[in-house]
């Protein structure tokens, strides 16, 4: 296993993003459509925050109601903005950061995704799933 291999070699570069003015319903649609759990919130291509599917679950009754019932979620979503729900103080790394260093950050923090930013521009995202898949290729 190459401990100095850069995160650029395993990060996702096909990034689904949101703007802080988007609706939370849009976010939920993107989470489900793309089967992802984290979406960077950007202004142009500069990171402003990150929204996780767990953030949506915290403000909705999604885990308490039937999937076909969307009326309650819509009502709750209309009470909040993405900017109110997203994490603001986002830890980022550069594409040259080693996989080992990113793994260390994720193992010590309470989040599961890190935006990859070069020269103030979002260039990728890496998740704990990306790290696990990388580890699996090493054995």
TrEMBL record:
InterPro entries attached here?
A: CBS_dom (IPR000644), CBS_dom_sf (IPR046342), Diverse_CBS-Domain (IPR051257)
The domain of life is: Bacteria
The protein's name: CBS domain-containing protein
Matching Pfam families: CBS (PF00571)
Q: Which PROSITE patterns match?
A: CBS
Q: Which UniProt keywords apply?
A: CBS domain
Q: Fetch the Gene3D superfamilies from UniProt.
A: CBS-domain (3.10.580.10)
TM region positions: none
Domain CBS, by residue range, is 11-67, 86-139
